[in-house]
Write a structure and sequence with these properties.
Layout (H helix, E strand, L loop, with lengths): L1 E4 L8 H18 L6 E3 L2 E3 L8 E6 L5 E9 L5 H4 L14 E9 L15 H15 L4 E7 H9 L4 E3 L4 E3 L4 E9 L2 H11 L6 E2 L20 H10 L1 H18 L2 H17 L22 E2 L2 E2 L2
Parallel strand pairs: 1-11, 6-7
Antiparallel strand pairs: 1-4, 2-3, 4-5, 5-6, 7-10, 8-10, 9-10, 12-13
Helix pairs in contact: 3-5, 7-8
Length: 301
């Protein structure tokens, strides 16, 4: 599942936000030492982690952040607008266009074949990004990115158009480029076929529906009887059931327990030998190929 975290519901994701900012510090500050980044108490943030920012988080079965990305509306300040001189074109400022940055994953989730979890969080995040765009009526995304990420995105079949020529940053440490990506139902359909992720991914929790004192979510046992029941239900009904359960649980239960319960449901399905995804998985972007942020002497996503 890909959780939508915004100003309205971020208080429900305090633990996940802390993990995400620490991931960013570990990768961008400690791992790559890109200049121009701000970090405090082991957490990397910038001026675009503001009230307009929306984070899409792929969570593992225990509610930990496996992969995430940030989106900002172009009607507000964005990373790319800060470095507009990287683009040869006037940058859009439209309700239908958002800027994407800070695409990152934990080390164990940077490969298409994941040895730890059955599902690939990077592939699911790709679907979640497109589902989010559809939910907000977006037509395009913009980004300042590593050239290799832009090239990889193009190979996924995402319609990508360069807004300027690739440029070196930090004395040749890397090459970045500005780009615009078309989004829509046709891109989502193509990406589902490419990645094999057919189930709906997006979970957008309305904080008004979360009961602060709701009962604890019941534990789910992976009994043989339950596995047989899951098989009897069938794949297509299970896809709809998991989606419906995610929405209902989010509205009726304590959020951390709800996240764990949704994860338990997914593990039940996997233990029953059923997959909500296809088998033709495309390689997912590695964290080293993340949308880039930059200072005048550096680009870091």
């Amino acid at each position: 599942m890909i959780h939508v975290v915004s100003l309205a519901n971020q208080h429900l994701y305090a633990r996940q936000l802390d993990q995400m900012f620490r991931m960013r510090h570990a990768y961008y500050v400690e791992g790559h030492g890109w200049s121009g980044l701000t970090s405090q108490d082991g957490k990397e943030t910038d001026e675009f982690d503001d009230q307009h920012a929306v984070y899409l988080m792929s969570l593992d079965p225990f509610g930990h952040v496996a992969a995430s990305v940030r989106l900002n509306p172009t009607l507000a300040p964005t990373l790319l607008k800060k470095f507009a001189d990287w683009s040869d074109e006037t940058l859009p400022e439209l309700e239908s266009v958002w800027d994407i940055s800070r695409w990152i994953a934990t080390p164990q989730h940077r490969r298409a074949t994941n040895p730890r979890w059955p599902s690939n969080h990077q592939r699911e995040l790709m679907i979640g990004i497109l589902e989010f765009c559809l939910s907000r009526g977006l037509t395009h995304l913009t980004m300042l990115a590593e050239s290799r990420l832009a090239e990889r995105i193009a190979t996924y079949g995402w319609p990508l158009r360069y807004l300027g020529a690739p440029r070196e940053y930090e004395g040749g440490k890397g090459i970045a480029v500005t780009a615009e990506i078309e989004v829509g139902q046709h891109v989502l359909a193509h990406t589902r076929a490419k990645t094999g992720v057919m189930a709906p991914m997006l979970v957008d929790i309305d904080p008004q529906r979360v009961s602060p004192n709701g009962p604890a979510a019941p534990a789910i046992s992976l009994s043989i009887a339950m596995q047989d029941l899951a098989r009897d239900i069938g794949l297509d009904p299970l896809r709809r059931l998991v989606r419906a359960l995610a929405a209902e649980i989010a509205g009726d239960e304590d959020l951390p327990r709800a996240i764990e319960l949704v994860g338990a449901i997914n593990r039940l399905i996997e233990a029953a030998g059923l997959s909500l995804e296809g088998n033709d998985a495309a390689a997912a972007p590695s964290a080293s190929e993340t949308p880039a942020t930059a200072s005048r002497s550096a680009v870091a996503s």
